[in-house]
Write a structure and sequence with these properties.
TMEM127, membrane, TMEM127_TM, 149 residues, mainly alpha
Length: 149
């Protein structure tokens, strides 16, 4: 049982690493390669396959041991929701890694750097709308017209 818990945590950790790599969008070359080739998703699939295999092995061993202890009784071992949930997580991980592997990537080695949202921003003074007034124009010296309904 401890082995299954450890494998479940390993699957969660590798899935979480893949999630963070997808969210952050790494800039280092090694992390880009890991993300493009969906290495964390592949590890998650491997962990889930091992978990399901061990669950199956344990259920077969339990059936054999109980039948050897009491040959005249009928033993039926069934799976609960946890095994189906782990299997569904493995299927989703396979789909995620397939989508990541089939996604087209740029063929160039260097990707285009992200554009800055505000080009040449030097601070709050760059957003000043009007400059210093040197000369009043004739329209600026006139008061606004009176309000009429």
């Amino acid at each position: 049982m401890r082995l299954l818990i450890l494998l479940c945590f390993m699957a969660m950790i590798s899935s979480l690493v893949g999630f963070f790599l997808d969210i952050v969008g790494p800039t280092k070359k090694i992390f880009k390669i890991i993300r493009r080739n969906s290495v964390p998703s592949i590890f998650t699939v491997v962990w889930v396959v091992v978990i399901v295999g061990i669950c199956y092995y344990v259920s077969i061993r339990l059936t054999t041991v109980v039948q050897n202890m009491n040959p005249e009784s009928e033993v039926q071992v069934s799976y609960e929701y946890g095994c189906y949930t782990i299997t569904a997580a493995g299927v989703v991980a396979v789909i995620a890694s397939a989508c990541n592997l089939f996604q087209p990537h740029s063929s160039s080695v260097q990707e285009i750097p992200r554009r800055r949202l505000v080009e040449d921003w030097e601070g709050p003074e760059s957003f000043v709308i009007s400059g210093p007034r040197l000369v009043d124009t004739p329209l600026e010296s006139l008061p606004p017209p009176p309000y009429s309904p």
